[in-house]
Design goal:
- This protein is of the alpha+beta class and 341 residues long.
- The chain is built from 11 helices and 9 strands.
- It has a 7-stranded mixed β-sheet with strand order 1-4-5-9-8-7-6, with helices on both faces. The protein has a two-stranded antiparallel ribbon with strand order 2-3.
- A hairpin with a 2-residue loop joins strand 6 and strand 7.
- The longest helix is centred in the first third of the chain and has 29 residues.
- The mean pLDDT is 91.
- The structure holds 3,4-dihydroxyphenylalanine.
- The site of 3,4-dihydroxyphenylalanine has 11 residues, from strand 8 and strand 9.
């Protein structure tokens, strides 16, 4: 072989590599190409190199250089195809200085946050948690709570009746009866749970919502205990915000009251959420009606007590500045990220 022929053979080898290597569809096929071209015992380049010592000494230098360039050329083609076939992590080369991505681990719903916080405050003053069924009998939901049949208060408690005559409970108050039947006073319980009503779904109503009931029964309990305990709770939960009690009516309490807190969204100036009044009603409360105590099988001459029912969604609305209650039910996880502490 002359030096010229050697240079031509090297050029052919590069052409061949250019044609064949990109055809490799897998890493295994690519490895077969590598062995074909660069294999140490019988590769095409090795065959060519074996000719090198037989050339005229004057041609060897240039031929050696061409052989080397051919190796570099083939290796570059192999590398390019290998990079294309190798599964990649991330878009570019690994950059260890990149800040890590925050992992979304989820968060508690604002209503749950509020329920837990309320439960903590009442736990400190001796309340325990009690639970009751969401499917309830009319007796527990209405009769035992002193709702006379056909009473107008029932209108606000329109709900779904099941075929068995049971109802989806309209409030957590039936758990008052269940607790009084089951435990001996002194009783101090907090009852979180979901309730159902035939309500429209608007900025301040939902057909299903959470409530928290509170009940304290013992000998010699008076309205002073109610007011002192609920004021303590309001100070703990709302800080410096003003609160007020207004007379009200519930069939199962006598006397009855509503507790309002100064609207935390407008700070008393009046806004859409507080309907311009500057106050938001957060709970109903009152002295447990003797008929309720009697219906539970306890002696109303001996035991007295007080109760309240609170809407934690309303409270969450105040705590987290949420103008429309519907965002709490929209199942948009951005709410959790933005509102939960
Ligand atoms: N159960 C009432 C309701 O859902 C709220 C309520 C008012 C509960 C006064 C009470 C209470 O325990 O004392 O509208």
């Amino acid at each position: 072989m002359t030096g010229q022929e050697f240079l031509q053979a090297a050029a052919h080898l590069r052409d061949e590599a250019e044609r064949r290597i990109p055809g490799a569809a897998t890493l295994a096929e690519l490895e077969a190409e590598r062995i074909y071209f660069l294999g140490r015992t019988s590769g095409r380049l090795r065959d060519l190199m074996e000719v090198l010592p037989t050339l005229q000494p004057a041609d060897r230098r240039e031929a050696g250089k061409a052989a080397n360039e051919t190796r570099v050329f083939i290796e570059a083609r192999l590398d390019a195809v290998r990079a294309a076939l190798t599964p990649r992590q991330g878009a570019g080369p690994l950059d260890l200085t990149m800040p890590g991505r925050t992992v979304w681990r989820g968060a508690r719903h604002p209503v749950t946050v509020v329920i837990d916080e309320i439960a903590d405050i009442f736990r400190e003053i001796g309340f325990t948690i009690a639970l009751g069924p969401e499917v309830e009998s009319e007796w527990y939901n209405f009769s035992a709570l002193n709702f006379p049949a056909d009473h107008p208060a029932l209108d606000m408690h329109d709900t779904l009746y099941l075929e068995s005559g049971a109802v989806l409970r309209t409030h957590t108050s039936p758990v008052q009866i269940r607790t009084l039947q089951r435990y001996v006073p002194p009783i101090r319980v907090l009852v979180p749970g979901n309730v159902y009503r035939r309500d429209f779904f608007d900025a301040s109503h939902a057909p299903m919502f959470a409530q928290i009931e509170g009940l304290a029964i013992d000998e010699g309990v008076s309205f002073v205990d109610l007011k002192a305990t609920l004021s303590h709770f309001a100070r703990r939960f709302f800080g410096a915000a003003k609160t007020r009690f207004r007379p009200s009516f519930f069939p199962f309490t006598e006397p009855s009251a509503e507790m309002d807190v100064e609207c935390q969204i407008c700070h008393g100036a009046g806004c859409r959420t507080c309907k311009g009044t500057g106050w938001v009603e957060i709970m109903g409360c009152g002295m447990v009606h003797p008929a309720v105590i009697e219906a539970s099988g306890l002696d109303a001459e001996r035991f007295t007590g007080w109760a309240f029912g609170m809407g934690p969604a309303r409270v969450a609305q105040q705590r987290f500045d949420i103008p429309d209650i519907r965002v709490l039910y929209d199942a948009d996880v951005r709410v959790l990220g933005a509102l939960a502490p």
